[in-house]
Automatic annotation (TrEMBL):
This is FdhE formate dehydrogenase accessory protein. Residues 1-31 are annotated as: Disordered. Keywords: Cytoplasm. InterPro entries: FdhE-like_sf, FdhE_C, FdhE_central, FdhE_N, Formate_DH_accessory. Residues 182-219 form the FdhE central domain. The keyword Hydrolase does not apply. PANTHER family: PROTEIN FDHE.
Amino acid sequence: MSGLEKVGSSREGMPKGSQSLGAPPLLRLPPRQSPFAKRAARFRRLAESHASLAGYLALMADLVEVQHDLWERFLQTPLPDSHIIRRPLDNQQVPAWREALRLIAERLGAGSEPVAALCERIRQATDEELESWATCLLSANFQGIDPGLAPFVAAALQVSWSSFAARLDQDRVRTIECGYRCPICGSWLVASMLQTGGSVHGLRYVCCSLCSTEWNRPRIHCIHCGSSKDVSYFGLEGAGEAVKAEACAGCKTYVKLMNREKEPFVDPFADDLATLGLDILMVEEGYQRLGFNLLLIPGS
Ligand SMILES: [Zn+2]
Ligand SMILES: [Zn+2]
């Protein structure tokens, strides 16, 4: 496995983000066009270039392709009450997400043996079982759900919640503190991205693990404790510049920082799963990851 490489820190003076004209948007709600098409293509490309993870990344590509295929249908499902999305833990799930899960199981059920068995389990499950899996996932109670089922349940919830977020009127969303939990749905972050283009060029946005909303946070700044004093950057030796771990020596947490200037197609979910070696090394260094990728729950 590649080693860990320290590639910069706030003490040495990291390059600042470019100053954009006008105030950048605090929130970036997901687009009406499916957010899943590019992600599926990215998973497919990473499966080709990461031989040791090829089968796993190809399965994720298949799963995200189903999310994409379900997108238009879910833009038609009713929004939660009053068009106000509350945090998922306070909110009854809209039943349509269960339909998404059953459609995912139908589409992927003809796959290889372990996947077929998981899909069969989903098809046989009652509504109550499906709801209990969703509750465990959304409340980060990972002992309550089979880790094999988690990516499928997560994918269905992502389609449902992203379709809500994409239909919100940005001007009517009152903001709301933006920390490491999503200001729209309350879920944990998955990673953060240095964006390119237009008013967001060079700015850092944090990505929600559930509803595809992004929110702005300063660069070179710990998303957990807010300190800029002792922030360092680590990468995997020889793995390129696109994915780094931004680590805070104060609170010993890290988040992944993905750089679209270095790799325009980098994706917070796909590139996260393709760089799990970086997580292993960061944990060995004594850092704890802030947030998680719903497609691979901690401990899986
Ligand atoms: Zn969210
Ligand atoms: Zn910190």
